[in-house]
Amino acid sequence: MKVTKDQIVAAARQLFREKGYAGASMQDLASLVGLRKASLYMRFPNKEALVPEVLALTLRETFPDAQLMAGPWQVAYEAAIGGIAANLSTGKRCVGLHLAYGVGDDTPVAKEAVREFFQSLRTFLSDILTGGMPREIADTVAADALIRLEGATLLIAVFDDTETMQRTARAVIKDATEAARAAR
Amino acid sequence: MKVTKDQIVAAARQLFREKGYAGASMQDLASLVGLRKASLYMRFPNKEALVPEVLALTLRETFPDAQLMAGPWQVAYEAAIGGIAANLSTGKRCVGLHLAYGVGDDTPVAKEAVREFFQSLRTFLSDILTGGMPREIADTVAADALIRLEGATLLIAVFDDTETMQRTARAVIKDATEAARAAR
DNA sequence: CATAAATACTACCGATCGGTCGTTTGTAAA
DNA sequence: TTTACAAACGACCGATCGGTAGTATTTATG
In which residue ranges of chain B is pLDDT below 70? Predict the structure, then answer.
């Protein structure tokens, strides 16, 4: 087993990120990992099965240690936002967003995986924020942070503008501290 | 000529919005407008040529009258943001964002059209904001507004959450007024 | 080294992709 | 009614799509 499953999933993520679900072909993936197309079906029953794996890997990488939530919420939140922003900046796009836009009702497994992915992101951020504000406010602050970071990938994709992502990361952190102060 | 060019472009926009550039086929488009695939090539030289037309139509629809910029900038800005938010809410997704993520270097005409589309949106918003703040600040406020509205489409696509879009529209308008007050 | 199980391979399937061909049809001017 | 032109058509092209069948090759185990 020269090529590991994680290598294939990581390559699939790159393709989904750059070309979307429909635009990325199994042949592309095979070439990228140095295998033949048929060999991919040893590890994955079909193309759609790649999506949950890709998103699970991304989630795992984005939050390397959930231990961070032990400390003060401000530190945890700053680390979480920074992690997401860094991930989006290095990848230049968000796989989740590309898949969210790209998968339809004909791929229900993929669609559900996308839901779970963003639901996880939301609740992860919201859980941190509850350390400094009531749940209801935390939910909206988390959602706002998420969509701003995701939206910032647009300017990276179109104008190669990475500055806005950094500014956005700082802005959402500031918003959180202000929301906490207002809720106190 | 029973089917007008604008009808085809509008149908193409719907397909690009829902399925992306790679996911939307000329056969889909033909079926949607009630023509045969070959007939589409009477009006458009190839698939890529649809992209500039789609984005131009969207831009035209988003800002029906540039006359709005004549009045006070707050009114114009609120109308502009409201127009964008309404457009994104009814379409459930942003064609521009889907295309920005979807088109690659193999379709340079489409890629350039996407650039121009978002550049137009940016400068349009920024131009309005210069009525109440210096250009430099207006640019960042406009960019921030744009990415927040675009990012809000994610929650519509994934969770069918239209509430966040409305909240975001109000938030970016408030941000603009505060930026103007701070710059005064 | 022999053997059995993974793993990767070649070759192929029907379907669909973007796009082109020559032909038929609708329509408006003469 | 004839003529002429654009619009729509059916049929087809090579390429690629996701996926499968059967075979060769590697790898771990005895």
Answer: 1, 66-68
Q: Which residue has the tokens 């458009």?
A: B44
Does B157 reach chain A within 8 Å, measured CB to CB?
Answer: yes
- Confidence grade of residue A2 (pLDDT, cut at 50, 70, 90): confident
Dihedral over alpha carbons A5, A7, A8, A11 (to 10 degrees): 160
CA separation for the pair B12, B86 (Å, rounded):
20
For residue B84, the one-letter residue type is I
Amino acid identity at A21:
Y
Helices (H) and strands (E) in chain A, counts: 9, 0
Chain A positions touching B100 (Cβ under 8 A) are 154, 157-158
Nucleotides of C under 7 A from a protein CB: 6-11, 16-22
Q: pLDDT value at position B13? A: 98
Q: Is the pTM for the entire model greater than 0.85?
A: yes
Q: Using alpha carbons only, give the angle A87, B166, B100 rounded to the nearest 5 degrees.
A: 40
* Tokens, residue A9: 């999933």
Report the alpha-carbon distance of residue A147 to residue A175 in Å, rounded.
14
Q: What confidence score (pLDDT) does residue B1 get? A: 58
The number of residues in chain B equals 184
